[in-house]
Amino acid sequence: MREIVQRLEKKVISHLELNPQSPTVTMLHEEEEFLLDSHEGKPIYRREGWYSRLASSRWVGIYVLVLHIVLAVLLFEHIYTFFTSTWDGKPFIIFPELRSLGHVVQTKHATNHSAYTMYSGPPNEANAAAWEHLLQPLYFNASEQELQASGTDPSASVKVKGGGYIAALGVYHEIHCLNKLRYFLYASQRPSNQSEDDAQISTDHLDHCLEVLRMSAMCHADLSLYTFRWPADPQSKFLEAHSTSPKMCVDWTQLESYAWGRKIGLTPTLVRETPDGQPN
Predict the structure, then answer these.
(1) What transmembrane ranges does the database entry give (predicted)?
(2) In sequence order, what DSSP letters do the residues of 263-274 get, joined into one string?
(3) pTM for the whole thing?
């Protein structure tokens, strides 16, 4: 038996000398030869490839562990970002009641420069009242959980008497900005039911409003197709815009109903707290 093992050892050594790139082979020690009888007289070899040699290194093990931790963190961050930035394939909505907000197809576009709606045209009692009604749900009292869901620090937010924090939906902020620009456009024509405070508009405020509307337009990107026609008046300097392109819009009736259900008026009572958390 020993002679057989010795002959095999010589063959393996000879093979390794001729093939230095082949995996190493670890032979059994002499004191382990008694195991041969339980394996039908065949010697047992343990092959050590490149993976086994690497795995035996302590530093390689540490490296693999750290690598797996980093990959796990990155995977978790990716999954967390996905589920907090989308809801059923739509942009993330903080309020559960609005996650089922419906959409409608509209084809109406504001292309006639001389046709006024209930909100447009020189200031008068009717359109002033329409804008005031439209802006009634501007403010509402958001809960601490809603602020946290939006990434807002409640400790840096203004509280409202009766509970919650004063807040506004982005769409109403934009409507507020449009109304301020309307005041500026018709600064010399103030209706009787427009207050002095409404008429006092700073340039900084208007510039802020323009930036709000620009960002909103670029965010939502209305893809309606507009074409242009020659004006009927040959003296006109501008082409006439025209569009019947369908576009997807939110169900404003549903959204406005939700906003009215949470409104706290245009002049809510605010709470200023002292550093120790007591009302001032």
Answers:
(1) 60-83
(2) B--SSPPEEPBP
(3) 0.64
